[in-house]
Design brief:
Blueprint lengths: L2 H67 L8 H21 L4 H15 L2 H6 L7 H15 L6
């Protein structure tokens, strides 16, 4: 065989081998890129879902928190009724937000909610109206303790 033909065959074989190796490397990199993109997309959805649940939690407490902090013209006895009426709305938002917490953060959040929910004066106010300004401030503090978990990390 002529040396030119041998050189051409070697060149073609080398080129095909190079293309084959390049395709293997490219395929591996593509799979890794797709997997990383998928993981990042899932994490982004998780983060955005937590932010939305946090927004809903803050939103559920906002009207009552505003009334408790700025009671202009309201008698202190009205606050127990305000909190009792909104309790179901708060419970739903708390339950939704819990799905995005784990471990110690979930334990701390549950403790904050239980302190609000099991607050002796709060349960007493379901029957007897609040009589002290400091009791209203305790409720505000407990609400803020719950909402503290919605802050971005």
């Amino acid at each position: 065989m002529d040396s030119t033909i041998v050189a051409a065959i070697i060149a073609v074989a080398g080129s095909l081998f190079g293309v084959w190796i390049g395709s293997l490397i490219s395929r591996k990199i593509s799979r890794e890129t797709i997997a990383a993109t998928h993981r990042n997309a899932i994490e982004l959805v998780r983060i955005n879902s937590r932010k939305l649940a946090g927004f809903r939690l803050r939103e559920s407490f906002a009207p009552e928190l505003a009334l408790l902090q700025y009671p202009e013209g309201r008698g202190i006895a009205e606050f127990s009724h305000i909190l009792k009426t909104a309790f179901g709305k708060h419970q739903m938002a708390v339950n939704e937000f819990r799905f995005f917490l784990t471990g110690d953060e979930l334990d701390s959040f549950n403790k904050a909610w239980e302190e609000y929910d099991d607050y002796p004066d709060f349960n007493e106010y379901m029957v007897f109206p609040a009589t002290k300004e400091k009791d209203i401030q305790k409720a505000v503090i407990r609400i803020k303790d719950i909402l503290e978990f919605t802050k971005d990390k």
